[in-house]
Amino acid sequence: MEISVAYIPPTTTPYGKTCIVIDVLRATSVITVLLDLGVKEIYPTATIEEARTLKQSLEASNKKVLLLGERDGLPPEGFDHGNSPTALLDNPSVPSVAVQATTNGTPALLSCYGASSVIAAAPLNLSVACRHAVDAGNDVLIVCAGLRGKFAEDDMLAAGMFVEKLISLGGTSTDIATEALMLYKKSKEYFAEALRRTEHGQKTFELGFNKDIEKCAEIDKYKVFGVLSTNQDRPCIVPNMQ
Fold it and tell me: DSSP readout, 130-183?
């Protein structure tokens, strides 16, 4: 099993790969919390406008829908919830269906649609996500969501954590995966602080979401992870447990 890392989401479908998509601050961390709270379907969308339209369509089918996400780190107008895992935990009653739109994370997930398997992962569910990836039997591509189409150090740090775990499960790393691993190893003893010091971490902190940074830095707190299902009429993240 070869482990590779993409600095930013792919522009062509990574056929034959198992993709582990990471937006540590904060979309895939939010997905993990949502699934643990009992959400059964999470529809990622590329834009805020698409999310609003999809919510209306799903509600027309008599589904109760949670609309959540962010624009510039904050909840968009008319959304039920922002992109904060700790806020979800403070108000844990949620419907079984959610629509999510974020700047980086949801487009990254959609960019991998069509791969052999697509896992929405975060440090919060590191071990179960990695075990699922190994069991799939394919080479693994860890996809960093990035920051507005560019390299994001916070996702690269988290990717290094996943590389370390996958190597322990028998994988071999390529050059960029090794680079991510070395970056992570330099900061693994103070991972939350390392996230906070990144460009994205500083922005998140300045917006008042320091508790989110601390939460997103927690490792192996959950046994559930999300996979992008191909059995729906549109891309949908559904829960899986290892």
Answer: HHHHHHHTS-EEEEE--BTTB--HHHHHHHHHHHHHHHHTT-EE-HHHHHHHHH
